[in-house]
Amino acid sequence: IVLNGPLYHLCDRNERLQVLREAGRILTTGGRLLAFTIGRFAGLQYAISSGRIFEQGYFDMVVHEVATGVRRNQSTLLTFDTAYFHTQSEIEVEMQEAGFSSISSFGVLGPAGNLPDLESVIDDADKRSRLLAVAELMEPYPMLGAKMMTIGIKE
Fold first, then answer.
1. Do 110 and 134 touch, CB atoms closer than 8 A?
2. pLDDT tens profile 109-130
3. Which DSSP string corresponds to the chain?
4. Would 152 disulfide with which of 16, 35, 95, 120, CB 3.0-4.6 Å?
C-alpha cells in the first residue's frame, strides 16, 4: 500500500494511527506499507530558499511548525492551510504502534527541489550527475529533505 498524502493532512496523532492501522488491516502478513510524510523542516527550508523567511507571518508559521509539527496557515500565504510535518522518529514510532515491523525511512525529496533553475540544471548532464550524487549522500538522512518515505512490513 502507498500512502502519499493522508498522513500529512492529519494533525491529530490518533487519526494518523487510525489510517496506519487501516492500511495494516487490509494488508496480508508480510505486506509492505510505503508511507510518505513531509519532514519537520520542509517549511523552513522552503522559507529560506524562497526568501519568505523575511516575511513575519511566514516566519511565525514556520517557528510554530518546527516546534510542534503542526502547520496552521492563518494568512493568505500560498501553502498548506493545515498540515502535519513529521520527524523521522515520530513516523517510525507511529508505524510501530500500528503494528508494522522492519521500519526504515528514506529521503525522497531533498533541498535541490528548491533550486530556482532546477529544470536547466537537470538538462545539464554534469550538473544532473552531481545532484544525483547529492541525493545519494542525503538518502540515509531523511530529515535533510522535504519529504520522507517510511517503509514498514505487516507482522
1. yes
2. 777 777 778 889 889 999 999 9
3. -EEESGGGG--SHHHHHHHHHHHHHHSPTT-EEEEEEEETTHHHHHHHHHTGGGSHHHHHHHHHHHHHSEEE--SS-SS-SEEEEE-HHHHHHHHHHTTEEEEEEEEEE-GGGG-TTHHHHHHSHHHHHHHHHHHHHHTT-GGGSSEEEEEEEE-
4. 95
Q: How is residue 136 annotated by DSSP?
A: H
Contact assessment for residue 45 and residue 58, using Cβ atoms and an 8 Å cutoff: no
CA–CA gap between residue 141 and residue 127 (Å, rounded): 22
Q: Return the closest-CA partner of residue 36 out of 64, 10, 58, 71.
A: 10
Count how many Cα atoms sit within 13 Å of the Cα of residue 1 in the half-sphere of its side chain: 22
Angle between helices 13-26 and 88-97 (to 10 degrees): 50
The band of 107, judged by pLDDT with boundaries at 50, 70 and 90, is confident
Closest CA to 48 of 59, 40, 61: 59
